[in-house]
Amino acid sequence: MATSTAFEWLCGELESSTELDRLASRGTVRIALKQAGLDPNAATADQLSVVLQRVLPGELGNRGIDAADGICSAIASRISQIPAETSAHDSPESVFHDSGAERLSTRQPPSIPDTSVIGRFSPQACPPLLR
């Protein structure tokens, strides 16, 4: 699965704002997202904004980046520039809708045969078995 547009944007911004190369910036962002419990494949701009404030400055500091707080604040101020996702991720609602389960839940149950006559056998109702 491809990474989200927001993830790609943040990695590019981090690469251009620091001396980290492409691989190092992607790895740093992946580690920060993992610490926040987020998936790079589905990260949104709102989620990345929180990561930029709370997690990424520490990760940049661990990598020897000076003024990590300032860099993250500057990137966070531009987060509205993230292009909209071209395809919606599978939300539980969309999966439910696409699976047809919604249609199944509105279907009428099958008719149940009348079981009130079970147990009432008479010689007239039952054909002779063997004579």
Can you give me a brief rundown of this structure?
This protein has 131 residues and is mainly α.
What secondary-structure arrangement, pairings included, does this model have?
Elements: H1 5-17, H2 22-35, H3 45-54, H4 56-62, H5 68-77, H6 92-98, H7 101-106
Helix pairs in contact: 1-2, 3-5, 4-5
Provide key terms for this protein.
single chain, 131 residues, 51% helix, 7 helices, elongated
Description of the molecule:
The chain has helices at 5-17, 22-35, 45-54, 56-62, 68-77, 92-98, 101-106. By secondary structure, the chain is an all-alpha fold. α1 (5-17) packs across α2 (22-35) and α4 packs antiparallel against α5.
The radius of gyration over CA amounts to: 30 Å
Number of strands: 0
Span between N and C termini? 72 Å
SSE pattern, N- to C-terminal? HHHHHHH
What overall geometry do the principal axes of the alpha carbons give? elongated
Strand content: under 5%
SS content category: mainly alpha
Low-pLDDT runs = none
Helix fraction bin: 40-55%
Could you report the average pLDDT, rounded to the nearest whole number? 80
Number of helices: 7
Outline the biggest β-sheet: none
